[in-house]
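Subject: mismatched residue count in predicted assembly?

I count 529 residues in my input, but I want to confirm that the predicted structure covers every chain. Input:
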Amino acid sequence: MNLFEQQAANRRKSRLLIAGFFLFFAWLGLGGDWLLYQATVVSGEPGGYRHVVPWGGIVMAGIAMLMVWNIRRTGADKVLSSAGAWALETPESPAERQLVNVVEEMSVASGLPAPTLYIIDDPDPNAFVTGQDPARSHLAVTQGLLDLLDRDELQGVIAHEMGHVKNEDMQLMTLVAGLAGAIALLADGTGRILFRGSRHGVRLGGGGGGRGGKKGGGLIVIVLVLWLISWLLATLVTRMLALAISRKREYLADAMAAQFTRNPLALASALDKIEKQPLPTKAIKHGVAHLCIADPLGWKATRNPGITGELFSTHPPMAIRVARLKAMGFQAAKKGS
Amino acid sequence: MSILLLVVLVGIAVWVIGAYNGLIAAKNQTVNALKQIDVQLKRRHDLIPNLVKSVQAAMDFEKDTLQAVIAARNTAVNAAAGLDTQHVAATAKAEAALTASLGKLFALAEAYPQLTANANMKQFQEELTSTENKVAFARQLYNDTATSYNTKQQQFPTNLVAGMANAAIAELWEIEDQAEKAVPNVEFRRGA
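Triage response: the counts match. Full output below for your records.
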């Protein structure tokens, strides 16, 4: 897979995601409409309210549209503020000045505009980029990263992040973080409605069953159950989605970093150092994990390659990433001599 | 029959326009990439007088080395004035010489503990390392862009419109091996 294929794939996935999100919301609304239709038109009292226009579907689709628009507009800011990142406007310490220099270097190497810089006060080394536009990207690094890595290693990590910008991974990952956040919020709400509203739901189904016959009542219950399941599945689906998009792109971004710095061994050594830090990155929340260079949850899965590592982690096994980078370094050395 | 001819002619015209525009775009990218190098070179040239000033007192008896740096810098400034996509070699050579003289300066500076411990000096080293890296990365980008531009204008059938687009082979920024080897900069970069 090369750069342009990856860019095209990312744009396609973004469109699909937005369409899926939209349809999912419409389905939630229409499910409610159908239930109301059954209750008021098919088995309701004559002369009472008749739910003919699918207002639920219309309203939910409208909400979805507003949410996507809002995520596009403010997603990056939300990701940054949720991680507690502060903007580095005037570098003061030598380490900060070095960071600014390294970022400028990588901006030159990649031919991309330099991202705005943010620092996260967390002792665990990590980094991510976020934004909806390569011309206005935001790069956040933890204080731990600045403390742990030397200049060349830092350069490798920044190059990896610029690789995500160039591949247009950044937009898709920010979108996923925003959608996942929105759906998580919904799932919380649904949980509450479900527990409070279970009596309500039974009464609704029971009322339909009494008048419209057993068959209609059964159908209503099935739809109700399906509807509720899809609300609950939402969280799981977004989680899986974040997993599915995160892994292959890390390899590609590693390769891009090697192309920008011509120094794959520095990134390999940086990843090695990051992996050896036992602590999770506390400042970075679950929903943002797939944006980071290394799994901030410090999950054991990235430590052992194999089927569990490949399936259940937001990131590929670190050992494999390091091995691939070392292979690149070895080949470069062979060619050079 | 005449319709068929018309279709063929239109097809050719569309292709010529596409190939021509593609070449012009590649040419502008190459020129732009070279400009990026130029920006970084200027920054580098501006840094050096300040560096020399700040080490002068401590390294007074290394006058030859300091003068060599100044001379190399002035040559490089002159060479950079004539930089365009056809004339890259002179600048490349002057910059390599400048890098070598700076390398020598920093190697000698290692012998002065009060210099190497100086925060100001450390910042200079960081700035110079960064500018040199930027020059190197800009060169990388330029060479990649220039190579794809050169390939484009030489390949058939695009080469048929190369004359029309005023395309000329862009000179690559070659690094001389000896000059690169003479730079002890790597060690000092590790320490930064």
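Residues 2-191 of chain B form a domain with the de novo design (two linked rop proteins) fold (CATH 1.20.1440.20). Marking this ticket as 'not a bug'.
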